Amino acid sequence: MNIRIIEYRPPQIAQLFVLAAALLHWATPMKELHLYSRPVAGGILGTVGFAVMMWAWWLFRKSDTAICPTAKTEHLITTGVYRHTRNPMYLGVISMLLALAICVGTLPFYIAAAVYFVVINHVFCPYEENKLAGAFGESYLSYKRRVRRWL
To answer: Of 12, 98, 14, 86, which is closest to residue 48 (Cα–Cα)?
Structure first.
């Protein structure tokens, strides 16, 4: 059985990491060790992350572009939030995971956010960058030179 992580949607992976973090938080004495807990700051970061993600989602919907990373991409979106980051949906989810970690304040939630970032940065982003370079050639490569992967 060959399971490739790229076959899963990033929000499903995020949900799995949150569930694992919650179980570890609940089942271990780690919940007693608060690293950094600031619910208001976490709430603000989570709201901003959600807004960035939804702005990017809206741009995809408006241009009738598939959101699934493995689906064929019909349009290269370089406007709106995509002028500042090539991966605003991923950035939004990472921000929300980090916001949850800041709200709860325990190690499992910080680990979940960090591991999600590693998976996205080292698996999904390179996969999508190769796919977009193949589909859009120099126009994507020019965009990639102008706009950073994250911020």
So the answer is: 98
* Closest alpha carbon to 87 in 114, 127, 43, 47: 127
Tokens 């992976």 appear where? 13
Residues contacting 102, CB < 8 A, separation 6+: 36, 37, 38, 39, 41, 42, 45
| Six-digit token string for 18 | 């949150």
* Per-residue confidence band for 1, with pLDDT thresholds at 50, 70 and 90: very low
Q: What share of the chain is helix, strand, coil (3-state, %, to 5)?
A: 70, 0, 25
Give the tens place of pLDDT for each residue, 38-59. Answer: 999 999 999 999 999 999 999 9
Rounded distance between C-alpha atoms, residue 121 and residue 70, angstroms: 16
Q: By C-alpha distance, which of 98, 99, 63, 97 is closest to 80?
A: 63
Q: CA of 2: how far to CAs of 5, 7, 11, 31, 130, in Å?
A: 10, 11, 21, 35, 22
The single residue listed with the structure tokens 């408006």 is: 62
pLDDT above 80 for 119? yes
- At position 75, the amino acid (one-letter code) is H
Is a pLDDT exceeding 50 seen at residue 8? yes
